[in-house]
Design a protein that fits this description.
Three copies of one chain form a homotrimer. Chain A is of the alpha/beta class. The first copy, chain A, folds into two domains: about 300 residues, Metal-dependent hydrolases (TIM Barrel); about 60 residues, no CATH class. In chain A, strands 1-2-3-4-5-6-7 form a seven-stranded parallel beta sheet. In chain A, helix 6 links the parallel strand 2 and strand 3. In chain A, helix 16 runs antiparallel to helix 17. The longest helix of chain A has 23 residues. Chain A is globular and about 60 Å long. The interface between A and B is medium-sized, with 30 and 34 residues.
């Protein structure tokens, strides 16, 4: 094969973004944009302009400027000025189309009015969209609607069955709600009903009943497991509401060892800084898959090392691509852009060192870019 | 020294593999070979052919093909075909001899009929072999043989003394049996006898009494410590029976701080993904040593970074080589091959950057390749 | 900008060493020097000469030899001989001046007779010095002086107020005394008084009452927080008295989430091997800052990767330089030397890969070298 062809191949390979959220559709102010460049905070930043002084800030100025017709490394002021000129929706159109993504698997758990939904994302990006159902949301709407907690088990099963008819997978945010250092064995129906009763009687602050009860979360997880749809776990990096050390995926070992779980694909999302631990699980369990989405965007030029670390123990058939983008569509583009950069250097480096043939390298890229996702989620 | 000489030096340096198991001696089917390329599973893989789509799969096709007279990157089908043609024993002979290993320190804890023993490994490889006694096996055979648990303490001491007469060290698999987050102080004899009585009365499932009692495991460890033989701990990466997060070697801090332990060499094996934590212990305790065996094989082209990480805090006098190979002798060869590749790049990189002189680099290589092991295990 | 200018820029940039101790002023024997090259041990090494067989040993021979007029990679014997010839104070003068440090922020918690104090360090180095007050020392002297534990709360507040009048920050060694897996919420005054009473009645072994009570340590921390001075936490790597796994900074999450803490700069020192976890906290909390001091010295040629890992999630406005040097002034110099080496390769690599412009790179270097420290500690 001709020199330079592997980078070209990586540049062209079509991606399936197996975990992503909707982009902004309406114009917003600069503070909204800046705050979107911080994943860890849970409230507006006191100095939002500091988000430009980060890896993701550099990466946007380097890689997204050209898409907005600006020179590389445009200043934050020039970037924001041009971005405002174009409108949010035009930025979104350009970024999502430049990403080279054929399919977006959208977690609609954050699908508030501010973000494009499944149809909107399809329209703007020109790609296919698929839905991932968030288990805790199902429970939270159910608890407000049923008259009798004794119906919880049956109703939850039926509702999840209905909601997933048009979905390709489900997701749990157990990481946020309770952490993984929990008993995640299947709870008995009576325990579930009792927990539902407690929850209904004491829904927590506000009108929204946020599910934090481990019995009910575990019930949701096992109900999903029995349906054998791919089940995504938020793992590691997220906002500071979660106890990061309690989201070490190794705490899932007992759950994964359960014989009933082995036929359900378990998708470990993000994983930072536990990507090596997650890779171990993908090695040790045939039904475990990983990605390093979200962290790729936020580590910018350092994402090359992160991607490399995700290629240690995990078989190449078990690694997927995701951006976990939400809000400004720079994130939808940048995930793909930085992934291509990283793969070109990491996997291309194996070719250069003769660790593998170029044909092998291309096969690996195709597996991670789309084959694994297509197979696991049974996409067309 | 002439250009290129350092890589040649690394190529030629003789290795002591201080933690290894026996190779297969009889022919087997491809599924056996494929399953041997997965360390984490505990049962036959549903799709064993997926083990080729891994770092170790690439590494075998890259580095072992030539030893079987095949071109680099031979296809899995060609590789298996040629391998079958040659016979397991001929593959074993070629691989073990190509490894450049002068001494194999064999953990006979897995020495079932399928694997070559000490004599067999010496014969096939042309190297010297030495025995490492596994403490838990000693206990497990003892408990089935003694009539009175009150004799356990004395009998265990005598038996261990006899068994280690011809051995160079002992090993504990505490990591598998209970994890490190335990009280590992020396138990009183009465507590040991009581635990032995309980175990004898309730040996667990099946006829094989698998030792999981921490009191008895700690007793075995402290009995070994008092003999001052090098004591190996399985740390980190292994099959999914172990709780990986409970094998963080930092949980051994209290044990290591015990004054009675300081004169016994403590050998931390594998350590992945805790190689930096293990390196810290090798820095903080003069009697602690580390290796990154097993993980080197399974991370393949990524083992360079792993080896580099093992060279952070650990003094060069405290790092050893091991393969932890078991079964197909590709693993016995590949450990050495990948270690040489990594050392050439990592330590060679220090020469290139003028971080050390070439003479220093050679001395470091000799320490890790064989000097440290020869000194610690008092090998001839 | 001309080729080669970025390395020159890094070479010249002035540093603020925001966490450092005093250098030796009086001559000592070689064992003292050798033992100073091991951070983990808590007693004289049995084989102190082994400290030369380490990353820090190589680094001293490589980088410090020239400052003593020796050729690079001088042998340990030649190095020690020349060093003795020059006297400790002359070595100290040369090393501290070669470091290119304008300001030293000195933790006087170890300020025994063996080490230069604030005035001595200023005199020998030609730089400015500033004081960091160690909270636990304040408590330990107070408990011996007050007649009535009921006065502890008021007296501690007054004393800390007085002591910090001329200081730029405070420090806690909670990591050593109790670990971070503790309830660090603000204790009620009555609980503090009760704990002070217990401590006074039972001060522990010897005449020095070493503070290990979490209530009193937390009281010290919250008293400091209310003064809004930068508050340094020892995190991670240190000697083996600490339980390294209990110093994972993620255990500080609850503390950091407390609204009262958000206006006080929290400085996470060292952080190894938790530099990525610390970086996450610097991303998720606007008032959290990190450095990788101490570990840079002890990982030597490998510090480049360590520095790189510290540039993942932490904003560039939240990363600081420190050496954490103590004793031989090689450590004061080497911290700066290895940091410049690492920055040239890591940040210079971003320029080479066009990940950022050279102007951006220079700005990042200035932030980490001195701007962040100057701003946070309000230095002149």
């Amino acid at each position: 094969m001709a020199g330079g062809s592997f980078p070209d191949f990586v540049e062209q390979v079509s991606l399936i973004d197996h975990h992503v959220h909707g982009a902004f559709h309406a114009d917003g102010d600069e503070a909204r944009f800046q705050n979107s460049l911080n994943e860890g905070n849970t409230e507006p930043l006191a100095k939002p302009e500091d988000t430009y002084n980060t890896q993701i800030g550099l990466a946007i100025r380097r890689w997204c400027s050209g898409i907005l017709d600006l020179p590389r490394h445009a200043s934050p002021a020039d970037y924001w000025s041009r971005r405002s000129e174009l409108s949010e929706l035009e930025v979104c159109r350009r970024m999502t189309r430049a990403a080279g993504v054929s399919d977006w698997l959208i977690d609609t758990g954050l699908d508030a009015a501010d973000y494009l939904g499944k149809a909107g994302m399809a329209g703007v990006s020109g790609g296919r969209t698929h839905e991932i159902v968030r288990l805790e949301l199902v429970a939270e709407s159910l608890i407000q609607e049923i008259a009798n907690p004794a119906d919880y088990v049956d109703e939850f099963g039926q509702r999840l069955h209905e909601l997933t008819r048009s979905a390709v997978g489900v997701k749990t945010v157990l990481a946020y709600r309770a952490g993984f250092d929990q008993d995640l064995s299947r709870p008995a129906p009576a325990a579930v009903v009792e927990a539902a009763r407690r929850w209904q009687e004491n829904p927590g602050a506000g009108t929204n009943a946020k599910l934090t009860d481990v019995t009910l979360i575990a019930h949701g997880i096992h109900t999903a497991v029995s349906m054998k749809l791919p089940l995504q776990f938020h793992v590691g990096f997220g906002d500071r509401d979660l106890d990061l050390h309690k989201t070490n995926p190794l705490y899932l070992l007992d759950f994964l060892r359960s014989p009933k779980v082995r036929d359900t694909p378990i998708m470990l999302l993000h994983c930072y800084p536990f990507e090596r631990e997650a890779g171990y699980l993908a090695h040790a369990f045939e039904n475990v898959y990983i990605d390093v989405g979200l962290a790729v965007n936020f580590t910018g030029s350092r994402s090359r090392d992160l991607v490399a670390r995700s290629f240690e123990l995990a078989p190449f058939t078990k690694i997927l691509y995701s951006s976990d983008a939400l809000g400004p569509a720079e994130l939808h583009y940048l995930g793909a852009r930085l992934w291509r950069n990283a793969i070109t250097k990491v996997v291309g480096g194996w070719i250069d060192d003769d660790d593998c043939s170029e044909a092998d390298a291309r096969k690996i890229v195709q597996l991670v870019a789309h084959d694994n996702a297509r197979r696991v989620y049974a996409l067309p």
